[in-house]
Structures
1.
Amino acid sequence: QQQVKQSPQSLIVQKGGIPIINCAYENTAFDYFPWYQQFPGKGPALLIAIRPDVSEKKEGRFTISFNKSAKQFSLHIMDSQPGDSATYFCAASRDDYKLSFGAGTTVTVRA
Amino acid sequence: GAVVSQHPSRVICKSGTSVKIECRSLDFQATTMFWYRQFPKQSLMLMATSNEGSKATYEQGVEKDKFLINHASLTLSTLTVTSAHPEDSSFYICSASGGRGLAGYNEQFFGPGTRLTVL
């Protein structure tokens, strides 16, 4: 069973828009929440990661918001560009070990 | 960031043959390597975890005799798909972890993937 639920499955935004991807988890033992970006035919690349002791983290145009009580976290892509068009995966792990991935969200940024 | 390579990037083989995929950490020592399988438009599914010098730990439902994993050194792990069948056709991705980095995370660095097609 999927331990991390991700939504939406896909979304389309205009250039400059802010795609938001949401993930939810059940296992309260998870303590590491990374986001990955994957282009077609390539392996995933780490974008940004967060621990549950902080509620928000920014790296460049990417922001993670984390709500520990709701067991939810989300990725915001600020000022999105066509080059951001990719599939994004959230993940979670315990003790930084095996990752449980969400189903993925395909983001399309239109020029 | 750390670099992980995979070879080959694409392979086509006949049904019944065996295929070996290599995963190398190029600029760090990988104490743990992971092998994933990804079907089109789907998420990554962990197949197995291997630690250098130890037997791999397979996820439930993954046939260890079919997917042979060897992690003989701190920079190389191999996945051998034995007696391949068309249903084994997939995108295989490895990742490597070398321990906690400066950020305090035990980050996994992913390879570029290998597309296997079994005819």
2.
Amino acid sequence: AQKVTQAQTEISVVEKEDVTLDCVYETRDTTYYLFWYKQPPSGELVFLIRRNSFDEQNEISGRYSWNFQKSTSSFNFTITASQVVDSAVYFCALSDLKDDGANNLFFGTGTRLTVIP
Amino acid sequence: NAGVTQTPKFRVLKTGQSMTLLCAQDMNHEYMYWYRQDPGMGLRLIHYSVGEGTTAKGEVPDGYNVSRLKKQNFLLGLESAAPSQTSVYFCASSYLLSGRNGYTFGSGTRLTVV
């Protein structure tokens, strides 16, 4: 069974600080996908990134970067020079491949990030 | 392009009442999903569909029924609402194989059962 652990329930940082959100996962699948989603106070889910299990390259997108380490089953997310607009709940998710081919998502419990101006 | 549209956005039900949540997507996606989000528990899969006319149970299916009569629509029904079903419900859709952008989510339906 899939498992995603986001041990940090809430994090507060002062604007312009860097912050890393941790995600640790468990799966027996040899091929899987990992995701990060952002949920701002307005409530919608915003896709941030998808990573394949066979691609361990780190990725950077503007102030966002992701560190995927298969050896430690971690997929951490770093925001550089945080801004107030980054305040949101961030979810890490792991694909859950069903027998009928459906590729569902198994979510962690989320980390609430508050950026203080 | 509307993406995934959920109706209604808010609803208050009395215990025992029934209702149907509608999810509509205009992206010709094969797969559709219903999730519920509860405080401190992330999102959990209720039911999903791999195509028109098919449905399957997810992680927390009890108390819900679903139907996919048309490819673009996925309905979630509560036959006899209970306070434990107070939650935010999200619908999502995707292609047969996970696309680069993963899943497209609707904006959610906030349901309160009193």
